[in-house]
Amino acid sequence: MVISPIYNEIIWALGAQDSVVGIDLSTTYPPEVKNVQTVGYHRALSAEGILSLHPTAVIHDNNIGPPQVVQQLQQLNIPLKTFNAKNDSFDGTKALIREMGAYFHKEARAEELCNTLDTQRAASLEKVKQYTDHPRVAVIHFGRASNVYLVVGKGGGGDGGGVSQMIELAGGQMAVENRGMQRMESPEIIAQANPDVILLTDYGYDRLGGSVDQIKALPGVATSNAARNNRIYRIEENVLNYFGPRSGENIAKVAAIIHQK
Amino acid sequence: MTKQHASRQILLVALAVVTLLTLAASIRYGAIDFRVAEITRALASLLPGNAAPTLDQRIFLELRLPRAILCLLVGASLGIGGTLMQALFRNPIVEPGLVGTSSGAAFGSALFFVLGGVLHIGTSLWSLPIAACVGGVISTYLVFLLARSREDGRASIVMLLLTGLAVNALFMSAIGFLSYIARDPQARSITFWSLGTLSGASWKAVEIVAISTIVGALIALRYAKQLNALMIGEEEATYLGVNVNRLKWIILSVNVVIVAVATAFTGVISFVGLVVPHILRMMGGADNRFLIAGSALTGATLLTLADLIARLAVRPAELPIGIVTSAVGVPVFIFLLRRRQYVF
């Protein structure tokens, strides 16, 4: 039982997926995770639901709830496991991959993943150099739990500010200066930041039927440079929001989207 | 009269049987289905001399059984609360949360979710229920206080009703503000709590809710006849020898305690308290002795059915129960209203 999108992505990359009996709703990558039973939203879990899949351990990244359910699992002596390393940077991600590799006895594969990550990162950064512009990017993330659109600011988005770091590595800059994520309650946030490019994470994008006109109707978006020049794009949540084994190549992906063609 | 009395007795017995049947289903089915033999073995493992329970047996004994029983008790509490409030206010649209209890409890829990992280008080299993219960009692007390007339210290029904609406709105705005400033995970906790769930049930919760529900039900039954007199009118009840002001305080206090305690452990569960008394009135008239006993049984049955649906609909995941109670309860209720020529 693994309740964490990043842990699951690494497990599949390590080739240790056969030991996973259940995942949470927010795990969406790789696509094969669809074949595994989900136990629902990671903050609205049910102890019985988890135990009905007979896990020998529940692995989570400290973002689970409600608290009583965690207590119930502890009382029934179900082992709960959290890895120490955090994927808040490339080094942190490599540490996490190695730690998980050791846990699942896939040390060799873990080293391979770390090497690929480094090589791809270097290659991506080389590609980024060819772009001379530094677009100011606003990222709009759709919070599925409370159905709100959130503007990601500097240092914010996903684990350890994943969004902000990815944008900067890809040669862009964050248009919204406020730290962390905030709700799009006031149109002034985006209007004032006046980004050159707007990225909308997949869920929020598809929810509006993928129509750019609908996206322009979000508060403050219409007057921005991005709307005027039609530089509003869809991006996969799992590409942008957190660091993982694919982050090396993802830098190039993000760069290809945000820079002028 | 005696004939009506007898038919109500039969109806109550029938309701009790239905309650037991749903309880049996609730024990048997869920994310894990327990066969009858397994249930017997699990229960037998409690007897001295038998082998210690296996994991599946412990899941049954420590998760399923307390949940099923807590569900009965909370349903009964909400049913009784609804009946008492509708009788006291002589108004069919009143539900137990009207005098501020559930919005106050929700505010207490929201405050806990947002500040608990900052002040590091989130460690104890009891912090959340206590915060919710205190919130419920404080907001209800606020309603009493503000509804009291300046001249004679009495609270008229209309004043209580309107003050309740106002205070509810105030607390809802406070909850809105808290979830606005909350970090994302906290905001999600607030959202889920306000939809209710029984997944956190434990034997300790069962004990506490059992005490409040049983004591509350007994007191309510004791005052049922006085509530009947009140149905005719406040003045008329006074002529019949009822101390109306005292009756109001007692009934309101009982409602606050049973609803605040139940809500503290499960979160806000909507609609049960509103719909249960109506279903009973359609079946058996307006005698409050019948309504209180019957609404305890019907509330327990309905909430147990809702919890079964919540557990089975998307298993092994679970729906918040508040979604089920409203989604299933409202259409049934409207159907009943339209089918019968129903007068409050």
Describe the protein's architecture and organization:
- The complex is a heterodimer of chains A (261) and B (344).
- Chain A has helices at residues 5-14, 47-51, 67-75, 90-103, 107-129, 162-169, 188-193, 202-207, 212-216, 225-228, 237-240, 247-258; strands at 2-3, 58-60, 80-81, 136-143, 148-152, 173-174, 181-183, 197-201, 232-235.
- In chain A, a hairpin with a 4-residue loop joins β4 (136-143) and β5 (148-152).
- In chain A, strands 4, 5, 6, 7, 8 and 9 form a 6-stranded mixed beta sheet that branches. Chain A has a 3-stranded parallel beta sheet with strand order 1-2-3, with helices on one face.
- Chain A has 2 domains: 2-82, Nitrogenase molybdenum iron protein domain (Rossmann fold, 3-Layer(aba) Sandwich); 127-258, 3-Layer(aba) Sandwich (Rossmann fold), CATH 3.40.50.
- Chain A is α/β, with parallel strands linked by helices.
- Helix content of chain A is 41%, strand content 13%.
- The longest helix of chain A is centred in the middle third of the chain and has 23 residues, at 107-129.
- Chain A has 12 helices and 9 strands.
- Chain B has 344 residues and is an all-alpha fold.
- Chain B has a single domain (66-339), classed as Orthogonal Bundle (ABC transporter involved in vitamin B12 uptake, BtuC).
- Chain B has helices at 2-28, 36-44, 55-89, 101-119, 127-147, 157-181, 184-193, 203-222, 224-232, 234-239, 244-266, 272-284, 288-312, 321-339.
- The model of chain B has no long low-confidence stretch (mean pLDDT 86).
- The chains are: A alpha/beta (261), B mainly alpha (344).
- Chain A binds chain B through residues 22, 25, 37-41, 43-53, 63, 65-69, 71-72, 75-76, 143, 145-146, 150, 180-181, 183, 185, and chain B through 30-32, 55, 58-59, 62-64, 122, 125, 128, 179-180, 183-185, 187-189, 191-193, 197, 199-200, 202, 311, 314-318, 320.
